[in-house]
Amino acid sequence: MNIAVIGTGYVGLVSGVCFAEFGFNVVCVDNDVSKILNLQKGLVPIYEPGLDKILSKNSEAGRLKFTSKIAEAIVTADIIFIAVGTPSKSDGSADLSYVYNAIEEMSAYVNHNAILVIKSTVPVGTTRKIKQFLINKGINIDVAFNPEFLKEGAAVDDFMHPDRVILGIESKKAQKALFNVYRPLYVFNIPFVFTDWETAELSKYASNAFLAMKVTFINEMADLCESCGADINEVALAMGLDKRIGSKFLQAGPGYGGSCFPKDTSALNDFADKLGVQLPLVQETIKSNNKRRKKMVEKILSACNYDLKGKNISVLGVTFKANTDDMRDSPSVEIINELISRGAYVRIYDPSFSKQAKEIFDNLEWSNNAYDNCNNADAVVILTDWSEFRALNLHELNKRVKSPLLIDLRNIYTLSDVKEAGFSYCSVGRAFRGNE
Q1: Are residues 38 and 110 in the same domain?
Q2: What pLDDT, on the 0 to 100 scale, is given for residue 247?
Q3: Domain of 243?
Q4: What is the pLDDT of residue 432?
Q5: Is 315 helix (H, G, I), strand (E, B) or coil?
Q6: How many domains does the chain have?
Q7: What is the mean pLDDT of the chain?
Q8: Residue 304 in contact with residue 379, Cβ under 8 Å?
Q9: CA angle 96, 101, 106 (to 5 degrees)
Q10: What CATH number is given to the structural domain containing 406?
Q11: Which candidate, 33, 169, 31, 46, places its Cα nearest to that of 102?
């Protein structure tokens, strides 16, 4: 089976590489020529653990190819996946221009026996509109919708061992073909959900909105913990042991960011609003998360006695989450910019050495490791929960800083460990601070 993947962003690249790992012949196409040239050399443009090795393996085996010429990818393709971006517009709605541009280009070369699969996250009803768009151009091929549920930093494993595979289809032909595409997962007893287009589309938005609400809920509980003396880590543990709730996405912190939750909650709310349906839970989730970053700035200010002028602040981690170089809607941007506006001198260390981050913070000093970044610091702020930050030698860190103040916005450390190392400690949802 020949598979074409249009778009080599996060979803497209991971999907294409993993389909090749399944044993299919895959051609990934993108109009970014420089990106394609780098991929042909085995250079992966995103930070995703394990992706580079699988890419190289399948490229060498001849199953995986990259091109900037859409005809090379489309003409012989049995299955065509659209995996281009659908960013938010200024009004919160999804920008579908990249999707329709890709379909317009594809339509000139498509094999009329092929099946088109939309993998981009699109508003409910879009797949049906795409089908009509193609019919109006005289192209009557099967169209399906197959949402992705990849977590950045664990995308390869998520693709290879998903919780479920959701497929919005219109015919038995599409069902059979897409079952064959994902057949390698069937041996792991992965549930397959075959449904209609609209249900599949809404399942994606509903899933992300629910997870975003879960993140927001635990952050609001963290605020309550700080006022009543409870420990949010233990509250989250107690909640997560309930199988109806589950432990994932119950980590208090600076709020959600990245490429999915912000745009998908906004797009879902915009779609519902146009239908005259109010989603107050989703609306409050968006509002609460937007306020979260200001609360984190307030927490840092309070820990520093509301005086940041001339203070050296060591920031550890700036990507929106660990194991990725993605800076899209990262809480760190608003937080760091606010610290700078208050007169702080900020130094950064992030294990990804994100190109995006360096462009955003091009006027700030970067360090090569966490310890050097903390030299002469008046405060150390942990913004991203990279694994290497969990194993810092706090005694060594104490020797390097000017003032032993650790502001841990990810609750990486136990209160006793930080106290034993001589740090004043400010965390999220835990009342203890200082060495009393």
Answers
A1: yes
A2: 95
A3: 232-436
A4: 53
A5: strand
A6: 2
A7: 94
A8: yes
A9: 130
A10: 3.40.50.720
A11: 31
Q: Are residues 104 and 252 in the same domain?
A: no
Phi, then psi, of 212 in degrees rounded to 5: -65, -40
pTM summary value: 0.92
User: Which residues are known catalytic residues?
Assistant: 260
- Report, as an integer, the average pLDDT of 341-367: 95
- Give the mean model confidence (pLDDT) for residues 298-302: 96
In this structure, which amino acid lies at residue 175? Q
CB of 407 closer than 8 Å to CB of 380: yes
126-132: Cβ within 8 A, 24+ apart: 126/96, 126/99, 126/201, 127/168, 127/197, 127/198, 127/200, 127/201, 128/197, 128/198, 130/99, 130/100, 130/103, 131/170
Answer yes or no: do 101 and 240 share one domain: no
| Residues 191, 236 share a domain | no
pLDDT tens digits for range 240-274: 999 999 999 999 999 999 989 999 999 999 999 99
- pLDDT band of residue 332 (cuts 50, 70, 90) is very high
Residue type (1 letter), 274: K
Q: Which of 93, 102, 150, 149 is nearest to 122 (CA)?
A: 93
Q: Do 136 and 66 have their domain in common?
A: yes
